[in-house]
């Protein structure tokens, strides 16, 4: 009977958090929603006062408990992934502005098991959705537990291998599924198509912040480890992982570093790009990197994938949140704009930092009248 009770708990989601502390997105209709891994942790806020207005209720009948914490949001649509724990796979769904109804684009069946891989985020090109299947997989037993396990709600199954699936946004068809080297990522950066001289699409490139297929970063980011810095260099190495997914029917994709990881201190996460380059070939990304020794990503870094160089900002003791790029109105260059990050200071204070998107030099900082917790994600909501 206890098992039946546990199952009921899982399907009611009572053991899952509704703390919407992972990300903030502005929907195409202007609503601003805070999100986390669970669907019930979706809250609508007032972007001016930051007051919570209520839960974001999905009006469809797709059900499910969890989704990708980072949907792809544009003025035209909201795309996300709903993992299917019973029959391992993912539903790719779209929601149009002004509605709360998600509609299914298509379904991807997992190539490995026993459960779908964790999808904290995923990338898209203009025409395709890339569905990642990491060997770090959801675990129903861990989802039931309120107490954290070593890998939270997940389990590491290297023998189950890693895959990337590519779905056509228009038809919902899976155009290819390839096995790739084992990987661990929280955050995909972007994806785009590669063409041959005749304009035929030959492959998809997908970039992510990749932790060398090592799950120790999950343990390292526990609060008890973050609160105390003893001068030891304990942040695990990470790199910009660049996947190449062939579209010629080959069964295997490639994974390599997009630039030398020493450029950004062998730490990389919390990435963003110029939103106008979503799904398109792009040159620059902004992220949190590392100046070692450190226990936490402690720099802001601008990555240049053409020159394969990085520019870094560092202030001793500062912990930056995800940097987000805001283009200068009328800009034509990809990096013409500013980069904003909220910084937690060593002394408990906090400030908003403004960097030049091109030179990556500090323009100004605005002190906040209160301290900030360690930052995660943010977003820019223009005042209109
Ligand atoms: Fe995230």
Notes on the protein architecture:
InterPro entries: Carotenoid_Oase. Pfam families: RPE65. Its cofactor is Fe(2+). This protein is mainly beta and 384 residues long. It has one domain. The protein has four helices and 26 strands. The protein has helices at 2-12, 140-144, 216-220, 223-227; strands at residues 23-26, 32-35, 43-45, 52-55, 72-73, 78-84, 89-95, 102-109, 128-133, 136-138, 154-156, 162-168, 174-180, 185-195, 201-210, 239-246, 254-257, 269-272, 284-289, 299-304, 309-314, 319-320, 324-327, 337-344, 350-356, 362-367. Strands 22, 23, 24, 25 and 26 form a five-stranded antiparallel β-sheet that branches. A hairpin with a 5-residue loop joins strand 12 and strand 13. The longest helix is centred in the first third of the chain and has 11 residues, at 2-12. The radius of gyration is 20 Å and the shape is globular. The protein starts with a helix and ends in a 17-residue tail after the last strand. The relative contact order is 0.09. The mean pLDDT is 92. The structure holds fe (ii) ion (FE2).
Name a few traits of the molecule:
384 residues, mainly beta, globular
